[in-house]
Amino acid sequence: MFIIFGTRGVNKMIKHGDFMCPQCATTKKFRHLQVRRFFTLFFIPLIPLGTAGEYVECMSCKGTFVPRVLDYKPSLGENQFQSQYEKAMRHSMILMMLADGIIDAQELVMVRSIINKFGHNDISADELSDLVEEVQLKKEPVGKYLSVIAPSLNEHGKELIIKCGLTVAASDGHVDQSELKMIDEMASAMEMSKSHLKGITSEFFEGKEQLLKA
Ligand SMILES: [Zn+2]
Fold first, then answer.
1. Within this chain, do residues 67 and 83 fall inside the same structural domain, yes or no?
2. pLDDT tens per residue, range 150-170
């Protein structure tokens, strides 16, 4: 007779409750699961071999996220997430435009179209120039608002913000060192790995991605 043995991951629920699902963009039920490896005999888990990781699963869309997604207060709700997101987008795109010290007309158009494309409240050209003045006066670091929304963003959401930043940087025809440095700061505020960022930027410069059609 054959003896069939192996290992298997077994999920154990650590906790459950409500959270702000980044994918559903609203409050949903979640399960926080821990994966434990077991030694199995005839497919029956017998001996625990330790933990293999943890994740949070949305009960609604079945999306899975790193446990830190729970740090985002569910009490903030959808509207607050949206307004924090908008704030982070506006602030980081304007700083990106200011990075090389020159406010270019094309950059202004690009920043406004990105803000209006990904936000829920459109702004006029006048409102944008007021915002630019405000950002120039306050001198807050580019990561200030990005780090607030980062725990609620999945990889795709973070990539999107980086690509928007690169689009603004490139809209005057070239991307300089000050702009690349700011992209780095944005990525580290969102706790993205160096290799992840490198992948996004090289893809961008190869022209494979066209975020906003001219
Ligand atoms: Zn969901």
1. no
2. 888 888 889 999 999 999 999
